[in-house]
């Protein structure tokens, strides 16, 4: 019985020490957050904030059948990416604006306006491949980090130590920054062209005819020439379609599946 | 004091109950099994175990093998986007493969009968497995589920230490699961007893922030995606085969 009391006493003494140890570990985690890359969990958490902001800008399409189709194509292409195990989400936004968005953590959106420009599944595959590339290359995440979210990491740490988590203020900062990048300034020409290249590679690896991308980019160029309001946003955030076409054309291939019929059938 | 003694007794009983489920192999091991369904060859299973966790790679000869991982008292199946709990798995192998994963049972309620320190029979789901051992370990398992009947025959077994990462579970990060993982992360509490939907903030409403985002729409995306994911594997295989894209054409980057 004495041994039992001793054990209980040791346990009682150890508990606060363990709690302190837990706190220290959390502190160390926060400190590491200031210098290391985001973990996948953090990436997804940030991605959810960005995705929620995208969804606050454009409503979600209610076309479930089309949603499923886009998911099937997206999953097919994502399987050939550098991060096939990421929990990819593909969704359609109900807006005539021609655009697609990639949020950290695998949240990919394409607008009904963009889908209206497409005439084959292969085109959709390359476009989704482009967005998948933004996510795998962590383009938005790098912007978040570059914009001194590292400094904000300390705020996360302080909040965490206080028993909370990510604050509304920090979420707002991440959300505003991502909105600025996605809807106003864009990520950068180099990143967009790299995403075109990777997107084409992914779609081709998945068995799609990457040359179909020409049709989409030429369609964008026509919208740009006509100064269509549906293209205004994409035009301000991406390199010109001609520029993109010239850059990517040597990498396009005529082999692989076009699947214009399936697109026609399922996109009606 | 009485309560404390009862607690300790319960702990001892629980530990003993846990130990009562004997593993197929007591040490690190790699074995190969041939599966027959109603007398016809139905595929093969490569079983890796470290005596506590197991990994069964089930190949029916069509498509990629299905990977079952049994660890920490739970069985998982590797699927697109991450591992899903066996109970949520819609694909093949569910009626048979758990027979290889002891000491982990497919649910805590499953019944395992022991004989001579080995499992003799194991009832899981609608299936019942009967084991035959010799001095080298398990040599065959007969599994019955309604009118279905399988025989698993061990073709080889070698002592082998597997990479521990082979038994790691990468849980699918669907809405709830993702938030649950956040709770052990920089952005959330480490206390796993907190509701999974507590998300990054340790509150009951999930990871929602007053940041101008539409978190209801986000939840809809995640829910829809989880629904799609539940049947995605089978549909994706059909979809890719029909279009001659993806895994059906075997391309690589």
Q: Could you explain the architecture of this structure?
A:
The complex is a heterodimer of chains A (268) and B (253). In chain A, helix 5 packs across helix 8. Helix content of chain A is 67%, strand content 5%. The model of chain A is unreliable at 29-35 and 150-165 (pLDDT under 50). Chain A has 268 residues and is mainly alpha-helical. In chain A, a hairpin with a 3-residue loop joins strand 2 and strand 3. Helix content of chain B is 22%, strand content 32%. The longest helix of chain B is centred in the C-terminal third of the chain and has 29 residues, at 215-243. Chain B has an eleven-stranded antiparallel beta sheet, with no helix packed on it. Chain B has 253 residues and is an alpha+beta fold. Chain B is built from three helices and eleven strands; from the N terminus they run H-E-E-E-E-E-E-E-E-E-E-E-H-H. Chain B has helices at residues 2-19, 175-182, 215-243; strands spanning 29-37, 40-49, 54-59, 66-71, 74-79, 82-85, 111-115, 118-124, 127-134, 137-145, 148-159. In chain B, strand 2 (40-49) and strand 3 form a beta hairpin. Chain B has two domains: 28-167, Lipoprotein localisation LolA/LolB/LppX (outer membrane lipoprotein receptor (LolB), chain A, Clam); 175-248, no CATH class. The chains are: A mainly alpha (268), B alpha+beta (253). At the A-B interface, helix 1, helix 2, helix 3, strand 1 and helix 7 of A face helix 2 and helix 3 of B.
């Amino acid at each position: 019985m004495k041994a039992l009391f001793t054990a209980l006493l040791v346990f009682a003494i150890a508990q606060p020490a363990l709690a302190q140890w837990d706190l220290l570990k959390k502190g160390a985690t926060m400190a590491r957050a200031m210098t290391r890359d985001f973990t996948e969990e953090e990436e997804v958490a940030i991605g959810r904030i960005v995705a929620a902001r995208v969804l606050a800008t454009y409503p979600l399409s209610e076309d479930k059948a089309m949603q499923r189709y886009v998911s099937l194509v997206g999953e097919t292409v994502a399987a050939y990416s550098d991060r096939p195990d990421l929990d990819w989400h593909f969704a359609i936004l109900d807006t005539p604006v021609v655009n697609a968005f990639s949020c950290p953590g695998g949240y990919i959106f394409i607008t009904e306006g963009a889908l209206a420009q497409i005439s084959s599944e292969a085109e959709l595959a390359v476009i989704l491949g482009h967005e998948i590339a933004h996510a795998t290359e962590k383009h938005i995440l790098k912007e978040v980090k570059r914009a001194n979210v590292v400094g904000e990491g300390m705020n996360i740490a302080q909040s965490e130590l206080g028993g909370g988590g990510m604050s509304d203020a920090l979420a707002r900062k991440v959300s505003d920054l991502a909105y600025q990048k996605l809807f106003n300034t864009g990520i950068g020409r180099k990143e967009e062209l790299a995403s075109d290249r990777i997107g084409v590679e992914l779609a081709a690896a998945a068995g799609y005819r990457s040359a179909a991308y020409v049709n989409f980019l030429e369609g964008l160029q026509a919208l740009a020439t006509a100064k269509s309001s549906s293209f205004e946003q994409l035009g301000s955030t991406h390199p010109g379609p001609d520029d993109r076409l010239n850059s990517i054309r040597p990498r396009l291939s005529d082999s692989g599946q076009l699947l214009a019929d399936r697109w026609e059938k399922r996109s009606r | 004091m009485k309560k404390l003694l009862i607690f300790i007794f319960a702990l001892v009983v629980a530990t003993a109950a846990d130990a009562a489920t004997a593993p197929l192999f007591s040490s690190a091991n790699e074995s190969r099994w041939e599966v027959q369904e109603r007398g016809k060859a139905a595929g093969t299973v490569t079983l890796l175990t470290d005596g506590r966790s197991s990994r069964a790679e089930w190949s029916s000869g069509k498509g990629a093998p299905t990977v079952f991982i049994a660890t920490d008292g739970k069985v998982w199946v590797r699927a697109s986007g991450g591992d899903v709990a066996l109970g949520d798995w819609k694909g093949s192998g569910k009626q048979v493969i758990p027979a290889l994963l002891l000491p982990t049972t497919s649910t805590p309620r499953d019944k395992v009968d022991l004989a001579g320190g080995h499992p003799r029979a194991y009832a899981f789901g609608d299936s019942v497995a009967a084991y035959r051992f010799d001095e080298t370990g398990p040599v065959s398992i007969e599994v019955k589920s309604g009118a279905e009947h399988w025989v698993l025959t061990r073709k080889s077994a070698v002592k082998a230490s597997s990479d521990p990462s082979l038994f790691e579970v990468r849980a699918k990060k669907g809405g709830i699961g993702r938030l649950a993982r956040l709770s052990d992360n920089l952005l959330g509490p480490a206390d796993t007893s907190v509701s999974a939907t507590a998300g990054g903030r340790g509150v009951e409403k999930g990871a929602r922030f007053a940041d101008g985002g539409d978190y209801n729409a986000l939840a809809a995306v995640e829910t829809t995606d989880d629904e799609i994911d539940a049947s995605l594997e089978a549909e994706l295989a059909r979809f890719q085969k029909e279009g001659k894209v993806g895994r059906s054409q075997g391309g690589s980057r």
